[in-house]
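From the pipeline queue, job 12 of 40. The input is one protein chain; the requested action is below.

Action: predict structure.
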Amino acid sequence: MKNISNLKNENNRASSSPSFKQIKTVKDLVQGENFIGWAYYIDYQKAHILTNDLWKFQINGIPHNCFLIAASFDPSSIDEVDEIDQEVILLRVTGTTKLPQDDDLVRGRIDYYQQQKDAFKEKGLDPITLNQMQFGGLECRVLGTFYVRDGNLWLGSDVESFPSASRLRAFRPNGEILETIVNYIDPIRKQKSIDDAKEIGLRHPPAPFYIGTVRYTSTTRLQTKAGEQVRVSIQPSDFLARRTAVLGMTRTGKSNMIKQLVSVVLKTSKDGNLPIGQLVFDLNGEYANANKQDHGSIADVFPTRTVRYRMIDTDGFLPLQNNFYEQLADGFALLSELLTEKKNSGGDVQHFLGLSFDQPESGDWGEISKFSIKKAAYWGLLCRSGFKTNSKLVTKFKVAKEVNEIVSSYLNDGDGLEPENGMTPEECRNWFSALREAYKDEQKSEKSSRSKSKNDDEGEDDRKSNKKKTISKWVDSKDDARAMMNMMCQKNEKDSFILGFQLLTDIAKFHTPNRSSEVGVEIYGHLAQGKVVILDLSVGRPSLRERITKKIAEKVFNLSMDKFVSGTTPPNVVLYIEEAHNLIGKDSDLDDTWPRIAKEGAKYKISLVYATQEVSAMHPNILANTENWFITHLNNIREVNELSKFYDFGDFSDSLIRAQDVGFARVKTLSGPYVVPVQIDKFDPAVLKEK
């Protein structure tokens, strides 16, 4: 058995792969020296074991929730055993049970203690009574039956039969046998992992990966003393195109578990020569940045395979913001959301909020022409509001020659601009500001001419009026542009002062000039290359974070779905989200983005790893379809009761509430037939650091 320090050094070593004991016959599972008692009652669901203090002492105790095995044969004479008895029943200790003579023994203990005069000078019990008092009963859940067939070890999830006159002996497994039990995968599942590996493009099935050691209870004094550091592994393929829940209270190891999973997937990707993209929605900045607990971040450990994004300009991070000039629809959607929160009731602002910057259909030249004018006016408003641009962006639109000539006469440079040849955002600002000035002058001139026309010939007046309305006719048919022109110049239709563009100035921080493509598309490109993409969402308001996460997740889902529908293979992608109850809560519409990813993502090779402390707040459909579970401490009965509906987590109800140890998890994976209590390895950058 390796000592603890050696095991610790191997904690996260990427090159380590489990090598389990080969079980050729069921007798290999029975460790005679670990005898702990007899099964005096058994049925299809549970077993009662008679044990003794001496037997407990010899095997360093029997902790709550530990595994036991029960067999009716003597392993030294297995060849003489009837075939019906050549099986081993796997049990889990769930509590104690009362022996028929317990009441008499309790009365005997009370009588004995009542006779004592000194707490430290007690009279000894007679040997017969003492022997009787050392016996006790254990209640166990039946987890299944191990048997050997065609040279393979199989586990049935129940018992096929049991003798009423039970002759079952119980043993507590440790060492290699315990490692075999906690890492057991049946032959069918092994073959399925081979088939799944081929389907997703892996050259060979990924090797199991160690994540921690068996830990039954919070108190580990005897377990540590015995040197029982039995390693627990997981199958990386269990997490590809699957759903994984990481549940538990804050500061109990959820983030550490997610970092471990990122490492597992990276190793799988590297070993299998298959790009597997990972997208981490980092609400608190703990994955993108180093912290005191880990002394390093994912980006520090895997610098060449990690890409980081942030909402503010920071060295080492790509901008998470979109370029509002180029990503019109996405940028305007965010801008309008933030502007709506300001609750400005001005008419021009309300008209502006009602605009749409969705591209018109190709071939609809009338709508395309209107859109190009609206876009240019919007560019001008953004520029006036302080939205920077460091590239020579240009936009074009058509305008009557006489209109442009009049506008050019109002421009300061006097040279004029040609909208049909393209204008920069600054030129759009200048042109539409000049257009509004010309428009207002024309209105004033028209009003003045009407007051003088009463004595003029009516026909002559019509001719003059038509000539003077050149700008008005053009502007009056373009309400969208007119509202933005008013905001640029901070004047409404009556030329009264309005805040206008000043309402947008503090929104400019959510814009970046350093992007030519939509951020969601860019991120998807990194994922397709097998990169770990971390979105640092630790800055910015919660509503904005929620919108960004949803928008990017929606883009990833839609792009993968488009590839699938078109007959091409989408890339393997793993999404990690925290505070999942806010995104896929029990009241969520299953047709919304996050529930759809959780429900349908597997079809498009999208895996979802979600973390939350509120199990009861999660959508039941999502919980019911989750394949992998990592559960740490939960602090109330309601959450534990909700969890008890799944697999055999009910066995751990008391432990989940009482044990608050960081990293102490109860793990159920797709390949694993039962829940295993595990102390998850600490994420150790020094060990995982890229060589």
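Job complete. Residues 425-452 form the longest helix (28 residues).
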